[in-house]
Design goal:
homodimer; alpha/beta; 38% helix; 17% strand; globular
Chain lengths: 141, 141
């Protein structure tokens, strides 16, 4: 399975000049866990990312919420190509302890964001657990 | 597989009188996604939950960060018993679109929090994806 088969929606981007509060507004509205910081002029390339956790950390530190997003954004991107194998994405998430990956087209432009939830939706994984249940139900161990 | 086999750590609780900012501090320190609002006097029972997303929403709405946590906490708990099947937890998360569940002991006291990540760590799930890769490597489809 390739990464591109798992990505469910077009990525939500935000300009580097936006504020922390504006980012929080986008998170609340879009119900996503990762925002890609990018210029809106194509070709769109990910410059940085901001997670919900980054917003929470800013609150914890008492940062001004009107401060520019790039004061809290992560510039070191962890990304995969859309044509990469899903197993590579699993490995990167696990190794880096993160829940989202930036997914790029093969030319390095932004394709989307892969979330740990996207894997979870994948029928095969759910089936593993449902199979367990069925085994228990039928008394097999 | 039972829920209790998947829960990895003791739950992190916070008092209902804490502020939104204090909750953000706990999230940042503990690297968790869900805080259980509970009195610290045993027997500890979950009264409500606060997610990282609730903090982000409070920022988006411009809530005062010194306000009490119970202004943003979710009182309607989605929970499982520690002895419930993992498949029930999967179903509850999927149906409710949530990433965490409160896990109770059979007497209703707090056992822990189950995160979508706890499933992901489970070797069986990872193996599914790694097996896919291996098949592709060997040219099987």
């Amino acid at each position: 399975m390739r990464v591109e088969a798992l990505v469910r929606r077009t990525p939500v981007t935000i300009s580097p000049g936006a504020t922390i509060r504006q980012a929080a507004e986008v998170f609340a509205r879009e119900k996503i866990g990762l925002l890609v910081v990018a210029s809106s002029i194509s070709p769109v390339k990910a410059q940085a990312v901001v997670s919900e956790r980054d917003i929470v950390r800013a609150v914890a530190k008492g940062n001004a919420l009107g401060a520019q997003l790039d004061t809290i954004a992560t510039k070191k991107l962890v990304s995969v190509k859309r044509s990469d194998r899903a197993s590579k994405a699993v490995r990167l998430m696990t190794e880096n302890g993160i829940r989202h990956l930036v997914v790029e087209n093969d030319d390095g432009t932004l394709f989307g964001v892969l979330s740990i939830r996207d894997f979870f939706r994948e029928a095969k994984l759910l089936q593993g657990f449902l199979r367990d249940e069925s085994k228990e139900f039928h008394g097999v161990d």
